[in-house]
Amino acid sequence: MGVMEQEAKELYVQMAHDEAERARQVAELPFGISFKLMKAQYDGRPYVKATCSHCKTILNIENPEYVWVHCGMGDPIPADIKEQFIARKQGSKPSLLQRVFGKSEPARQLDSF
Length: 113
Known about the structure:
By secondary structure, the chain is of the alpha+beta class. It has three helices and five strands.
């Protein structure tokens, strides 16, 4: 067996393993439940959009520790989406409301006319 054939065989085994891992992750969620990492249109803040086709519920989640209770069961955010969400949240800009109503700067002295 040549070097190219050995590399192709290793690549095929790795691809099969990756496909099996993806199938396992999809199988962990019940059918009809979807979690997507999204970004707010007006200020770019990340959030997770959760949908359930059984109870027709759509939920926008901004807390990574939130457990969504619907259809008689609780579904936390999947681990891979949660990690990406936390990473984006730490690197995101403050929201529009935080910029407007958040920390205030001390008033400027107006006696220097």
